[in-house]
């Protein structure tokens, strides 16, 4: 599948008001995210990773700088997955997905096909008629991903989507996500604290500094996808990211 949706960040700056002043968070972030790339963003707690992702999603306006998505933001389907599932508890799983499709103007006639396909991707076909409160945390997060996938994202933005899951569930879901990405090759941007996760997924890892935040380093990761989480090669990627973060290995 051919997609052409690189993202260019140019000189992004962002401060937040504080009592009696302001906190300069992003201090000029420029970055070219390549078409179909899997890019992870890591850095110290509070350095502005979520702020940056929200600026890419156009949910927060930067004070200065631009985000350019090719060919244009309105022509690109952006899926977003956060740490906690944000589902409508009073709608079934299928209705939650259909709600997202309706919001994008997808014809009703296509909803059934699209929701089925997305639920099958995340292995939740059997749960289409359940309500979110009757699902486990891991299942709800899979619905969250299905909702992002059902719109056929050109760009997928993820903010620590696996961090609230137990390791076994997280591992299974990561595998599923990397397989889907490997098939579809959308442009993926992942914010994570988990260095092993960044090593597992990424073509490139951006290491942010403390505030006021700049890009401290980028780590290019060679090697085929999907990777084995515990292989010697993946562990070596992990060591290189830790080194870039200044963590002794
Ligand atoms: N709406 C807001 N108003 C004021 N300050 C904010 C707001 N949102 C974030 N901040 C502050 O901006 C800084 C960056 O926050 P952000 O959540 O982007 O960082 P992060 O790197 O994602 O953090 P973490 O790794 O801990 O999740 C923090 O000091 C935070 O307190």
From TrEMBL:
UniProt keyword list: ATP-binding, Nucleotide-binding, Transport
- This chain belongs to the protein called ABC transporter ATP-binding protein
Which SMART domains does the record cross-reference, listed alphabetically?
A: AAA
Q: Which stretches are transmembrane?
A: none
For the keyword Nucleotide-binding, the answer is: yes
Please list the GO terms describing molecular function: ATP binding; ATP hydrolysis activity
Superkingdom of origin? Archaea
């Amino acid at each position: 599948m051919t997609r052409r949706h690189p993202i260019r960040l140019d000189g992004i700056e962002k401060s937040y008001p504080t009592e009696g002043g302001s906190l300069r968070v992003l201090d000029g972030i420029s970055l070219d995210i390549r078409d179909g790339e899997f890019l992870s963003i890591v850095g110290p707690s509070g350095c502005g990773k979520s702020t940056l992702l929200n600026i890419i999603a156009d949910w927060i306006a930067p004070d200065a700088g631009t985000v350019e998505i090719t060919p244009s933001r309105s022509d690109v389907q952006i899926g977003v997955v956060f740490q906690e599932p944000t589902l409508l508890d009073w709608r079934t799983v299928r209705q939650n997905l259909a709600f997202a499709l309706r919001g994008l103007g997808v014809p009703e006639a296509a909803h059934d096909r699209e929701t089925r396909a997305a639920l099958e991707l995340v292995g939740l076909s059997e749960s289409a008629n359940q309500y979110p409160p009757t699902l486990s945390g891991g299942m709800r997060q899979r619905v969250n991903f299905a909702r992002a996938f059902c719109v056929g994202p050109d760009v997928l933005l993820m903010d620590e989507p696996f961090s609230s899951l137990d390791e076994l569930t997280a591992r299974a879901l990561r595998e599923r996500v990397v397989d889907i990405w490997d098939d579809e090759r959308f442009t993926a941007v992942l914010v994570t604290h988990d260095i092993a996760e960044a090593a597992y997924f990424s073509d490139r890892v951006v290491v942010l500094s403390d505030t006021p935040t700049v890009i401290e380093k980028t780590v290019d990761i060679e090697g085929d996808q999907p990777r084995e989480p515990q292989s010697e090669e993946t562990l070596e990627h992990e060591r290189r990211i830790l080194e870039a973060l200044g963590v002794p290995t």
